[in-house]
Every structure is written in C-alpha cells, then in structure tokens.
Amino acid sequence: MAPSGKASKIGEKKEAQFEKNVKNVNPEVKKARKKKEKLPALFHPEQNFDLLKKKGVSVAVILDTVRPRKNGTSTVRVQIIHKRFSKFYSTKVQMLPEDWQKMIGPKTRGDLKEKKIIIHENLRRALEIIYDLDSFSFEKFDRRFLEDRILDDVFAAYDEYIKILRGNLQYGNANFYTYSRDSIRAFVGDKRLSFKSITVQFLKRYESHMTLNGKSPTTLAMYLRCLRYLYNQAIKEGIVKREDYPFGKGNYEIPQPQNIKKALKLAEIGKIYKHVPDNPVEHFYRDLWLFSYLCNGMNMKDICWLKYSNIHGVHIHFRRAKTINTNRNSKPIDIVISPEVKQIIDRWGNKPELPDSYIFPFLTDDQTYEKKHAIVAQAVQMTNQYIKRVAAKVGIESNITTYTARHSFATVLKRSGVNVTFISDALGHTNIKTTENYLDSFEDEQKKEIAKKLTAW
Predict the structure, then answer these.
(1) Edge-to-edge strand order for the sheet containing 74-82?
(2) Facing residues of 81 across strands?
(3) Distance between CA atoms of residues 166 and 169, nearest Å
(4) Cα-based distances in Å from 443 to 296, 427, 433, 446
C-alpha cells in the first residue's frame, strides 16, 4: 500500500524505479515476468524513500512467482537492491497471486490481514536496520537482520525454556510448556513463528481453533499463560516492543479457567473412608487419597517424596516441592499425625522405618530425577483411577481426582468454621508475611482439635 498525497507520487516514482532496477539486475526475473502477469510490489506505509536514496538502497516486498510451490503459492520476500545487486529475504509467508492482489489493497480482512501484519513487520525491521546503518552493505545488514530473525522465534524460545526447566528438575512445568508449544505448532503448522506475529487477531484465532477441537478454557488458559511468559521474556530481551504487547485489558484477555467446585461434602468423604475395598490395590490407592485429604491436601509428588526423616514425633514437617524452587524461604508445612494417618503409614509404609527411607513404596535413591517424575505421574494416574471406582461404588457422582482431596480439605475446614488464615497456612500459601506471623500463635492442642474435624463424620 503506497503512501497518499505527495508521498504517494514519490512512492509511485520509486516503485517504477525499483521495477526497472529489478529487470536490469535479474534477467531470470525479467524473463519470468514476461510470461506472468505483473504483480505490484508492496511498500511500508511509513517508508522513507529519500533516506533510502541517500544510502543507495531500494527496498520493497514482492511475491516471488519465479519459484512457485507445488500448491500454486509463492513465497513473499523482502527484496533489497544496492549497487545494482539484489538479495531476497523470506518472510516465511506464502500465498496465491490472486490473494497477493487482495492483500495489497486498502481493506484487508481475516487471514490476509494477519499475513500483511507479518509482512509489514519484516519490512519494518529491515528498514529500521538500513536507516540505522552509517553506510549500507549486505554484510552489515545480514549480520543484524538475520541474527534478529534467529532470536525472534517462538518455538526456539519454547525449546530453550523447556531445556532450562528440565535442567532445574522442574519436569512438571517443562511438560506444561511442551504441551503449549506442541498445541501452537499444530495450529500454525511447520512454518516458523515470530513473536512479532503474536497479535490479538492471532490469539483470537488460536482460541477459536482450540474451542473447535474441544479443548476446555482451562487448557487454553494454561497454554496461553506459557506463551505470555515467553512473550514477556522477549520484551525484556528487546526482541519485541512493549507497545506491541497483545495480552491484557483492551487487547486479548486470557479466558479465566472454569471455576468448577471440586470439593466433596464431609458425608461423602466419610463414605469413602468407611468403604471396604475389594482388593489390596484398591485399598492402597484409596488410602493414598485419604492420606492426601488428611494431610493438609498434600499433593501426590510430596506424598511420594516423603521420608521417615520428615516425621518428628506426632508431626510431619515438609516443604512443598511445587514452591521450593520459587520460594526457598518458605515455611515448612506442619501436619499433626492423626490416628487415621498413622494407620495408613503403618499399613503401607516401607519397613524398616529408617530416616533416609521413603515412607511409601514408590521411589528409591538410585532412580534419576526424571524417572522419579514419571513414577509420580503414574501414581497420580492410578490413584485417580481407583478413587473414581470407589466413588462410583459408594454412590458419589462427582468427578473425583487427587486434586479433589486438596480442595475438600480446605472446604471442609472452612465449612467447620476454621479460620481461613489457618487454612491458607496449612495449604502452604505462605507468600503473605502477615499471615505467617499470625499463624505462629497456633498451639499444638489447637492443631490437634482442628485435625479431629477432618474425621467428624
């Protein structure tokens, strides 16, 4: 789209000169264009033709119909001519000639509008580099333009961050980012994806894609939070500008996960507790679920990692694995060992009860961290499988998982009148300093009385 008014006349003159240069420089292009309909070049709306002339450079975007793909599309390229020598730089965008004609028009919609944004961004970056160079040379330009192109790669950023997470033994988070990366790759295909192409329109189209494929708002939110984090990192590294940020109020707002209440009523938990298991395996995984509920909603990773050294008299002290890397000063969670908790440990705990031995028969010290992560994931899957069976047998229709135990722990105590601040501390939500200081006043007897409420069925 050429500039209007005086700038338009200058643009038309420069466009004619650019076409003349192309024909003089590249006989292959000249020959091909005799056989094909001449397609107009695309210029940036704010392109400074006078400055480019001073630097002896011509810049435009063309549809490279000389080398069409099998499906009839051609690649859109930025073409730079300097001293009668031209070079082409791919924008990674492909389209049909008829779509090119539509795209360069004043009113572009849908997918073509998205492609035009990507093309303009490539052209804008090329022009910025040329304007900034004291004197133009392809060597100087390539060094900056191609380096930026390598950095501005969403999938490369995913791969690098996933590698960092795995190096930090954060396999759960690494898996989230892997799922997010793979989902977005499935949406865009095999082509390269730049951060500059992550626009509000792109995000809306991705949301529609996810919805049509039956993905929940919770899954969509999880994947997009990963992408948003990487976009923020790209801003810090100067790859994209803060003003181009597509997330947040007034732009694209990540859908809030569905707030489905997952807590069971105390009577329902009582049914699970009183149920007589059909076999030892069902008994074991039912008890693991109850152990989680009775132990402050402890998640399965923390249960598997518990050692006898975490037991201090009638207490279990541990730090949540989920937050240990992000809050190294977090306060250990203190659990009073109720008679029901002790029964579960006595029934299924490893023997002998050595301080360095894991309590439950999942992990061993000779396993790699990655192997342990896989075992924990399997434990979650098995617990979910058997607790659903138990729920069905006792007439509970809710979809029960290991997370239900944690949510039920908090909800049962809240319904019983327990101070919310204590519940926050029991769950390991220790990011509020005033809450931590307040909870220091709770005495052991108070904690024991509160623990009894969990089995008041």
Answers:
(1) 57-64, 74-82, 85-95
(2) 58, 86
(3) 5
(4) 17, 17, 19, 5
Q: Which residues of 159-197 are buried (b: 16+ CB within 10 A; e: fewer)?
A: eebbeebbeeebbebbebbbebbebbeebbeeeebbbbb
- Nearest-angstrom CA–CA distance, 251 and 218: 20
Residue 269: CB atoms within 10 A of its CB come to: 24
Distance between CA atoms of residues 143 and 145, nearest Å: 6
Enter the tokens of residue 36: 């094909």
Nearest to 93 by CA among 119, 113, 117, 71: 119
Tens-place pLDDT, residues 5-39 = 554 555 566 555 655 554 554 555 445 444 445 78
Going by C-alpha positions, the residue among 161, 378, 412, 375 that lies closest to residue 272 is 412
Q: In sequence order, which residues have a C-beta less than 8 Å from that of residue 45 and are 6 or more positions away?
A: 1, 3, 120
Rounded to two decimals, the pTM is: 0.57
Q: What pLDDT digit, counting tens, does each position of 31-81 carry?
A: 544 444 578 999 998 899 999 999 999 999 999 998 888 888 999 999 999
Please report, as a single letter, which amino acid is at residue 49. Answer: F
Transcribe 59-99 into DSSP letters: EEEEEETTS--TTS-EEEEEEEEETTEEEEEEEEEEE-HHH
Residue 346: both structure tokens together: 């006595």
Q: How far apart, in whole angstroms, are the C-alpha atoms of residue 278 and residue 179?
A: 37
Q: How would residue 457 be classed by pLDDT, with cut points 50, 70 and 90?
A: confident
C-alpha span between 59 and 47 (Å, rounded): 9
DSSP codes joined into one string, 303-319: HHH-BGGGEETTEEEE-
Higher pLDDT, 237 or 353: 353
Within 275-419, where are the H helices? 280-294, 300-305, 339-348, 369-393, 402-415
Do you know the residue count of the chain?
457
All structural domains of the chain, each given as residue ranges with its CATH number in brackets, are 5-141 (no CATH), 154-244 (1.10.150), 266-455 (1.10.443.10)
Which of 163, 172, 439 has the alpha carbon at shortest distance from 299?
A: 172
